[in-house]
Amino acid sequence: MLKSKHGWSGNYRWGRDNRWSNDAWDYNALHSTIWGPTVLGLSFLNGIAFAKIQGATLAAYTGTAGTSTPYKLVLHDSAGVAASGFIANADAAEGLDTDLVTVGNFASDNIAWVKGTGWSIGSGVATKGAGAGVLIEQDISAVANTLYKIVFDLTRTAGTFWPSFGSTTAIAVLAASATYTYYVNCGGTDSKITFNNDSAFRGTLDNVVVQQVLHVGATGNHIVSAKAGSTRNWTSIGTGFNYNSSAYRAEIRRA
């Protein structure tokens, strides 16, 4: 175990050219990183690739797109599947595209909303009363591998409720009234925003907003596909990579 001049501990090899080679640092071992739908900051869409690691900064490893990007970010999901790309300039501020939801304030009973039995729209909210219906959803043409910001108001008097992109894994299971904000990658092919409930759920849904995240903000970084490159893509994404993991292992590697 050695320590490089960069201040990272790890297993290194000193090359014949008097340079560190095969540098690899376990970032999670040194920083308290957080993953999950409330803080996830990963876009895997070609042309809009970026990454944010909550509770840590990549400032010391940030390069300049098109000039110098000497460090690579490697993410491993819980199954060990990896995605990697070179760390470029940080964004100045979060940038969001237009809201994709039709009548998200439920001012009218629009046909864009598909309602399960017991769901109704009126008085400016969507309400779940008696009935076996387990969802209310809308096709917003969500794009796979893309990060979205989802905001909605929930009031709950009984049961549980959970948002998801179509039939994919629940973003979070909720049992309290609040305004909720989630950052979620639409990792699959289902283009619908779906609000699910168990049979006991009673409550209302209101003020639904879903926007694609175009820029992650000052706490994140653009990701480019090649060293000193300018194309905002990931270099590689392993088959079956989990786009919404709550337990990524992150590494910084010197390219």
Question: Can you tell me about this structure?
Answer:
Strands 5, 6, 7, 8, 9, 20, 21 and 22 form an eight-stranded antiparallel beta sheet that branches. Strands 10, 12, 13, 15, 17 and 19 form a six-stranded antiparallel beta sheet that branches. This protein has two domains: about 1-35 and about 45-90 and about 220-255, no CATH class; about 95-215, Sandwich (Jelly Rolls). The protein contains no helices and 22 strands. Residues about 1-20 have low confidence and may be disordered. Strand 6 (about 40-45) and strand 7 form a beta hairpin. By secondary structure, the protein is mostly beta strands. About 0% of the residues lie in helices and about 45% in strands.
Features:
255 residues, mainly beta, Jelly Rolls, 2 domains, eight-stranded antiparallel sheet, six-stranded antiparallel sheet, 0% helix
Average pLDDT figure: 86
How are helices and strands ordered from N to C?
Answer: EEEEEEEEEEEEEEEEEEEEEE
Shape: elongated
**Biggest sheet layout:** 8 strands, antiparallel
* Total individual domains: 2
The CATH H-level homologous superfamily of the largest domain: Galactose-binding domain-like
Helix/strand/pairing category: mainly beta
- Into which percentage range does the β-strand content fall? 35-45%
What's the CATH first level of the largest domain?
Answer: Mainly Beta
What is the rounded Rg? Answer: 21 Å
Low-confidence stretches: 1-22
Number of strands: 22
Q: Which percent bin holds the helix content?
A: under 10%
Individual helix count: 0
CATH architecture title of the largest domain: Sandwich
First and last CA, distance = 20 Å
The name CATH uses for the topology of the largest domain is Jelly Rolls
